[in-house]
UniProtKB/TrEMBL annotation:
This is Phospholipase/carboxylesterase/thioesterase domain-containing protein. The keyword Hydrolase applies. Keywords: Hydrolase. The keyword Ribonucleoprotein does not apply. GO terms for molecular function: carboxylic ester hydrolase activity; palmitoyl-(protein) hydrolase activity.
């Protein structure tokens, strides 16, 4: 069964009501935090998953999915940061929740992604805060669509690599590929880069971020030296998620950040 999340928000009437006078980026609110009842009762949180929503969405759009995941990983805390409200070129310059600007739907890996560094700094602060609490190898970055792109972009920063246990990118891609490659030139790539596990999940009928973007992202990551990149394709799935995908993500998370023995 396929479920749609993160709809094409630039077509939504509620988005059109935003004033064009809101030209500047507005800061986001506080992240949503999801913990299982087991972890709350025992104080047993030993891992964190930072999960970003897609363009035009909010953390609430992913609340129940992360609640379900937390039941399967009761030792993990799920943190859902909100994107700032910013003008989006694809939306005619009107403001909407976005991690960075998008001009079109064509070649995602080549887009300049204006604002991505500001969002990366926000994600980086979350990573550092969680790593100081649960450990340097116990923080996973994940997300859907633009949120998945942010997870990849953040993890591939040199100062983040020692802190991130893995990345799960659902219906996403690697933004600003040229900048990532320039920051990780041959001969200066840390050993942690090769060992970073990455799970890419993508529908074969995705009309927003086509499957080719996921395949090119896999190829780009492997060209950077990553040796643990896995791409899972879901037949007939569009820009959405399905139960099979969520099951695969659950299994992958349980392997990357397993329950710690007491």
């Amino acid at each position: 069964m396929h479920h749609r999340f993160g709809p094409c928000a630039w077509a939504s009437p509620c988005v059109r009501r935003f004033s064009r006078r809101l030209a500047a980026t507005r800061p986001a609110q506080e992240p949503l935090v999801v913990e299982s009842q087991e972890s709350k009762a025992s104080g047993g949180v030993s891992a964190s998953v930072i999960f970003g929503h897609g363009l035009g969405d909010t953390p609430s759009g992913w609340l129940w999915q992360c609640q379900d995941l937390s039941q399967q990983l009761p030792w993990a805390r799920f943190i859902l940061p909100p994107a700032p409200i910013r003008p989006v070129s694809l939306n005619g310059g009107m403001p909407m929740p976005a991690w960075y600007d998008i001009h079109g739907l064509a070649d995602r890996l080549l887009e300049r992604a204006e604002g991505v560094e500001d969002s990366q700094a926000t994600w980086g602060d979350l990573v550092e805060g969680q790593a100081s609490e649960v450990g340097r190898d116990r923080v996973v970055l994940g997300g859907f669509s633009q949120g998945g792109a942010m997870a990849l972009y953040t993890a591939l920063h040199l100062d983040m690599l020692p802190l991130v246990a893995g990345v799960v990118c659902m219906s996403g891609y690697l933004p600003n590929q040229a900048a990532v490659e320039a920051a990780l030139p041959p001969g200066k790539r840390p050993a942690a880069l090769a060992e970073l596990p990455v799970l890419l999940c993508h529908g074969t009928r995705d009309g927003m971020v086509n499957l080719d973007a996921a395949k090119r992202t896999r190829d780009a990551l492997e060209a950077l030296g990553l040796q643990r990149v896995e791409l899972k394709e879901y037949k007939g799935m569009g820009h959405e998620v399905c139960e099979e995908e969520l099951a695969d993500v659950t299994t992958w998370l349980q392997q990357v950040i397993p329950r710690r023995s007491r």
